[in-house]
Amino acid sequence: MSLTRKQTEDLQMVLRGAAIALVITVFLGPILWIMLTAFKPLSDVYTMALFFEPTLDNFRQIFERPFFLGSKLTNSVIISTFTVLIGIPCALLAAYSFSRFPFRNKKLMFFGVLATQFVPPMVVILPIFLMFRTLGLLDTKIGMIWINLSIVLPFSIWMLKGFVDSIPVEMEEAALVDGASRFRVIKDIVLPVCVPGLFITGIFCFIFSWNDFLHALILTRKEAVTLPVTLGSFLTEEGERWELMAATGTIILLPMFAISYFIQRHFVHGATSGSDR
């Protein structure tokens, strides 16, 4: 029995809706579970109950002894913020240099910058640990900012170079002929055009730094421990404290949601602007 055109369209709509619902469930289901568990009392943690009397007791516990999440949250904010504040200006200047100045082995150097992104972190973590121990950078915020910069700078340079390449060289040459310095050219011509790229690159830099687990796990002990590493501290003698893990996970997720919400226009514009470079 053949279907009519309207029946076919209705069936396609149903299948499309089912596919969308499946994707939403797969991707948002774990996040929803974490957030619900964060507000559950201990008696409901191991149940699938969607309706319960919410409590903030889990959040209170993680900020008190022995977890002291407040110091870890401060560490994550400081390390991620300074990684962005230092990394973005350095990446913009490096991207401008690769885009505008001819120098020997430029392509090879640019390839070398990108190649660092394909090296598995586990391959280099031991040499980094030994170097940090020698330099006295283990368990320090400066050391964590340093290692995060080594992760985000190659990506940031690659992203921003596409935006700099899109700026007509003639605009800069005209400004230089009129007597503007190179710094003035970057400040008045390059920087305003690259604002969308700076936003999206800054977002990714912050996310990479905020979510870093491996380096923080190995290179910190007490003073510079960040939020992702704290999740392991909830494996106590009482067992796995899933409600406390969920509360910490919710705190880790909240900045990501806030960033995506408040600057989504810059995010989308920046992604599409750099996609054809």
Written account of the structure:
With 277 residues, the protein is mostly helical. The chain folds into two domains: 5-55, no CATH class; 59-274, MetI-like (MetI-like fold). Helices cover 73% and strands 1% of the residues. The protein has 13 helices and two strands, in the order αααααααααααββαα. The longest helix is centred in the first third of the chain and has 34 residues, at 5-38. The relative contact order is 0.13.
Task: Assign a percent range to the helix content.
Answer: over 70%
Low-confidence stretches: 273-277
Q: What is the string of SSEs from the N terminus onward? A: HHHHHHHHHHHEEHH
Number of strands: 2
Multimeric status of the protein: single chain
Show the helix and strand layout.
Layout: H1 5-38, H2 57-62, H3 69-100, H4 106-115, H5 121-135, H6 141-165, H7 169-177, H8 182-193, H9 195-211, H10 214-219, H11 227-230, E1 235-236, E2 239-240, H12 242-262, H13 264-274
Antiparallel strand pairs: 1-2
Task: Give a brief rundown of this model.
With 277 residues, the chain is mainly α. It has helices at residues 5-38, 57-62, 69-100, 106-115, 121-135, 141-165, 169-177, 182-193, 195-211, 214-219, 227-230, 242-262, 264-274; strands at 235-236, 239-240.
Entry keywords:
277 residues, mainly alpha, MetI-like fold, 2 domains, two-stranded antiparallel sheet, 13 helices, 73% helix
